[in-house]
Design goal:
It contains 4 helices and no strands. It is an all-alpha fold.
Length: about 80
Amino acid sequence: MAVLNIKNLPDALYKKLQARAKRQHRSVAQEVTHLLIDALETSEPLSILDLKGLGKDHWKGVDPSGHVEKERASWD
């Protein structure tokens, strides 16, 4: 299995990573692996522009402001 070393990782980012790992009951290394898998292996959700032309049936019952809010939150 490969080993990954990260140089010059900001202390504040490491502290956030530690806190996240603790909340998930994982080690920091396990959390980094989980985040990388999630980022690289999960299919990307379609944006509103990608969904253009799918028709009214697709958007029936979808709250537009809620959808936009979720899209914006995924950028963080």
